[in-house]
Amino acid sequence: xxxxxxxxxxxxxxxxxxxxxxxxxxxxxxxxxxxxxxxxxxxxxxxxxxxxxxxxxxxxxxxxxxxxxxxxxxxxxxxxxxxxxxxxxxxxxxxxxxxxxxxxxxxxxxxxxxxxxxxxxxxxxxxxxxxxxxxxxxxxxxxxxxxxxxxxxx
Length: 154
Fold this sequence. Notes:
The chain is mainly alpha-helical. 71% of the residues lie in helices and 4% in strands.
């Protein structure tokens, strides 16, 4: 990516580079959403379940097997910590404070969240899911800490 100069006079990655992992995270969310509906609708049709029988999450939980429900659980996960990621990426973009370290960390976050989603939607091995989630969270808090330090002039 092109280099621009930050407030401190040091070269930094073009702030637009932070938008690529931002879009990557959105793409992951869209993929999990599509996977969820593919799994769910296939199961509903194959088992002749009337849609009204799934009117609430509680009813769906009693009628859908775990393998069909996991993508929905993962989609809810993608609307938790990633919201902080989206806000932080937009902040870094608007303030032109995204440097190469922030962009690399953002890609690491997306990669770890992708691993988390794959694990959650398929084998659902809890310790692997937790480790990918926790590592992604640490990356996110690292990004936030760097942004706060930069905003404070450090």
